[in-house]
């Protein structure tokens, strides 16, 4: 048998760190003689201990427990070919010390990921996945995507997919990795294209949902302003029964939505003096009528205490008597407006609670334990 050459890395470099960190521990334990050898590319062999290898990797354990080959001398040989000898040395060093040098991780991260996957060393695989994810760019995204699929690294796979979906597709087509993917792996190319299409559809649905929610929040604000105007009065518009109330009881509170109130007051004045109502009305009048009708579907004021918003009772009676075909649409719109109002109220309450907790944290001298206890207490309330 051809004589095998030892790897340039010494045994102390490979497994000495297990007992002497950085070589500074004067009480160094001596390990027994190696009983297995790792065969690497170029005919190098690395001495190792079967017990340590078997405890770290179930794949190596099965290889070590397998019956020896015929004509095998000088201990059991475990071939690790196809990767540089230095990468195999770093892999064995990680098995012994659970650590890997930064320069080795930077230089052999792909090889170490492949070794960690083949020999089932999840700690090394997770670290390589994290390092490769931090160094992910558009140029190596397709290569790392293929590697993540072969080595079953779902975290790295998702990061690659997200980067490809958030990148300009024309720039992606110019990369060498995408050209190679088109020529040699059309199945993965189809997966990437489907993922990009799903991301675009998801973004459109999210954008449409946010626009609809913003519209419902505006309508909810308009409904609140209608009640505010006709109940308490605001700037130029007074309450309905302002003449019957004494001056002391007609103190107006500060308006929370002045811009919306001001726009509604202009619509109210326009509706009162518009001369186009006989010809079907103008767009501004129709808008005001729609707001009043929407308020009638939202208003839950009992008959004993009639609502002060004009035409509210009239719209309710008409809806009960006529039952128009579009009443279902108005009821659905009213439910969505009420839901948007509730969500806005919850978000505002949470924001106020967060600000109060931050103030209490500052007043308590920045005590993290007290802040955590108060936060947990607020979450249960």
Automatic annotation (TrEMBL):
Record-level GO cellular component terms: nucleus
GO MF entry, a single one: calmodulin binding
PROSITE patterns hit by this protein: BTB
GO BP of this protein: regulation of DNA-templated transcription; response to hormone; response to hydrogen peroxide; response to salicylic acid
Keyword line: Metal-binding, Ubl conjugation pathway, Zinc, Zinc-finger
Pfam families hit by this protein: BTB, zf-TAZ
Disordered: annotated span: 344-368
Pathway this chain belongs to: Protein modification; protein ubiquitination
Annotated BTB domain residues: 34-104
The protein, known as: BTB domain-containing protein
Natural source organism: Trapa natans
